[in-house]
Every structure is written in C-alpha cells, then in structure tokens.
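My hope is that you will study the record closing this message with an eye to the fold:
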Amino acid sequence: MSLLWLFLFVPVSYLIGCINISKLIAKRKGQDISKIGSGNPGATNMLRNYGFKVGLFVLLFDVVKGVVPAAIAFFVFGGGIEYRVFNSQIALFACGFAVIMGHCFPVTQKFKGGKGVATTIGVFMVAHPIISLIAFALTMLYIFIFEYGAMASFLYITFMVVYAALQTFNNTNIAVACMLFAIYFLIWFTHRQNIFRLLTGRENFASVFKSFHRKRIRREQQKWLEEIKSGSKS
C-alpha cells in the first residue's frame, strides 16, 4: 500500500471524528448539550443529564468512532510493503490521532468538541486490545466507586500511553512514540478545566446511581403532570 494513501486516510479519519452523537441526541430533544451541565458534548455529561442508557450509548458510539479508522489503517497498511519509517503502527496512530483531533476540534462545530477520551479508548482497543480492555474495565470500576470521570480518564490515558510507548521503544519506532505522547498531551489539554476543578475541589461527579435516581424523578414528575392535566380536563 502506497504511503500516499495515508494522506487520504488521515483527513477522512478527522472528518469521522467530527461526528458528535451527543449534539445530535440533544438537538433531537430540543436542547443544546453545550449549554447543559458542564457543557461538554461527551458521554459523562450525557450521563448526568439524560441517564445511564444515553450515556452508555454515547460512550460506545465514540469508542467505535475511534476503532473504525484505526482498524482500517492498521489492516490496510499492515498487508503491504513496510518501509523503515512507515508501517501499520504508524498508520494506526496517525489515523487515530486524526480522529481524536476531529472529536476534540471539529471543523463542523467551529472547533468546539468533546474531550476525546472515549475515542482514544477506541484507538487503543485496536493497538492493544487485551490490555486496553483490562484498563477500561478498571476505569469503569473507578468511576463506579469514586465517581470522578476526569480522574479515571487521566489514569486510563496515562497507563495506556506509557504501556504503548514501552512497546514502541522495544521496536525502536520513534515516530509512533511521538504520536502517542501527542495524544497524551492532547487529552490533558482538553481536560485543563477538570484539572483546575480537581485541584480546587470543585470537580463534578459522574454517578451512575444518581443518573438512575434522576430518571426515576423525571418519570414521577411526568406522571404527576399528566395526572394534573387529566384532572383539569375532567
């Protein structure tokens, strides 16, 4: 596979990253997710405001959004001629970085997007599937126990970048290592406000149990309103 094809795959990956399902779901409900809760169009904010099912759907969608370009790049370029400075790992992380950039800075939304964690998870699911699944499971456990989504994100990204970088240095592939740390600093940059809130003790919680409770309250409120309307008509 010619190196020129990578220059086509990278911008396509960026455009895939620009698809933000959170904004589409909120718009369908007649709302703007950027003006609700933390304002972040991501799974955590959707969990807080729309409940567990919606938050989980957004999370899975964003993960798949990272998986698709990375997987295509890896398998397409893995079967062709490998050059000394170019191989399937470089293609994987080049397209992976592009799709993360598209999620964080989408041209379709005036470069105001999400924080890129779920999409990054998707990229690492392709690069190191078993280790990434274990790290993801531990991340979810951390959120269930401590309810700090941002801190869980930092722990996951830090672990996966360090692990992948160590594997990369074993293969003496400096280009992949540079892209890994570019992803790392990008995620920290998008979480700069979370870091400030964590340091000042004002970080928002992401409780799954509270999302169920809020959903139950909404159902009760809706039932109460319907009873009032039916009573007024009679």
Notes: The chain has one domain: 4-209. The longest helix spans residues 52-78. Confidence is low (pLDDT under 50) at residues 79-85.
